[in-house]
Design brief:
The protein has an 8-stranded parallel sheet with strand order 7-6-5-4-3-2-1-8. The two termini are about 35 Å apart. The longest helix is centred in the C-terminal third of the chain and has 18 residues. Helix 2 packs across helix 11 and helix 11 packs parallel to helix 12. The protein is an alpha/beta fold.
Length: about 350
């Protein structure tokens, strides 16, 4: 298996090339009128999708300094997340400090990356903790993302869901992760799903909207493709796999279907939409597989936090361990790395 492109394809760490973490952000997806003919024309061949997804990691590998570069890039793609019932203000502040400085300085120095602005893409919390996170991240440029609309089930009264978005935006959230009503997708009521996401987008204002589809509860890959397309038509800036609370969360076949729907939407409308897999992505190996998927299906532009995010809580610790192995030749215990 041949390695992927040079490290600069993921993150420039070569001394003779300038560090560059991201191109200019894309224009926001304005959405388009609902096209039911397009939506209903989508059909997915599950066996073909599963074969293609299995081939991604079988044909590709990333080793040595290339792996270190790709893993540093992966850190910049993370929405560092805490969505636990026992969250406290001190936990949120510690998570925010980790977002500012996600890798120990001695490891960055050993990897030749000390001068790169390595930080996570966002910090994701419940609405209650938005003001705490905003205060802790002040001056860093790292946005706060708030889960909203009756997360994780999305079954609270509709006016309450809209009010929750507006309250999080007023508190300083610059990104809103909404959950759709799964019954709309399961019942094929695409008009209702379109109207719901459109209203959520309007309530979000300038805050970017990530539409969580809860793909593990949508029954078929065809439903995943159609729900993804409807959310994009309604103006979602990102489509996201899961809340992390379902029994099945982010898996590569689902990611492949969503990535190809994003590509189809781009080719037909000219609008770029981001993608966020979330739930169950815990290892550096998992992160690399998702990045390979993005590179092969959507290109290097989607290896960028403006268009690709990981929903991550425990992923960062494993990436740090892999980076320490690259720097020292030894694996470290998890406790050697500050809380993630």
């Amino acid at each position: 298996m041949a390695p992927l492109d040079s490290p600069s394809a993921a993150l420039s760490i070569s001394p003779d090339r300038p560090a560059r973490l991201a191109p200019h952000p894309p224009e926001r997806n304005p959405g388009i009128p609902l096209d039911l003919d397009w939506v209903r024309s989508l059909q997915v061949n599950r066996s073909a999708v599963e074969r293609r997804a299995a081939s991604l990691t079988a044909r590709r590998s990333v080793k040595k300094e290339w792996q270190a570069a790709w893993l540093l890039r992966a850190i910049t793609l993370m929405d560092l997340t805490t969505l636990a019932g026992d969250d406290t203000a001190s936990n949120v502040r510690r998570l925010s400090a980790k977002a500012r400085s996600p890798v120990r300085p001695d490891l960055l120095e050993a990897l030749g990356a000390a001068d790169l602005p390595i930080r996570t893409a966002a910090v994701c919390v419940y609405h209650h903790w938005v003001p705490t996170a905003v205060e802790a991240l002040e001056g860093s440029g790292i946005p706060v993302a708030a889960v909203s609309t009756g997360f994780p089930h999305g079954l609270s009264p509709f006016p309450q869901r809209l009010a929750e978005i507006e309250a999080s935006v007023a508190a300083g959230a610059r990104e809103i992760d909404i959950v759709i009503t799964r019954a709309h997708a399961l019942g094929g009521d695409w008009e209702a799903l379109f109207d719901e996401v459109r209203r959520f987008r309007e309530a979000s204002g300038e805050a970017h909207l990530k539409a969580i589809l809860a793909t593990g509860e949508l029954s078929t890959l065809t439903n995943v493709a159609r729900a993804s397309l409807v959310a994009m038509m309604a103006g979602a800036d990102f489509v996201k796999t899961s809340t992390g609370k379902e029994s099945v969360n982010a898996v590569l076949p689902v990611g492949l279907v969503m990535a190809r729907t994003i590509r189809d939407y781009l080719e037909r409308t000219g609008h770029e939409v981001g993608f966020k897999p979330a739930g169950g992505i815990r290892s550096a190996k998992d992160a690399l597989a998702w990045m390979i998927l993005m590179k092969e299906e959507l290109g290097n532009r989607w290896l960028d936090p403006h268009l690709f995010r990981f929903g991550a809580s425990s992923l960062l610790a494993d990436i740090e361990r892999q980076l320490e192995h690259q720097a020292t030749g030894r694996y470290s215990a998890h406790y050697r790395h500050p809380m993630a």
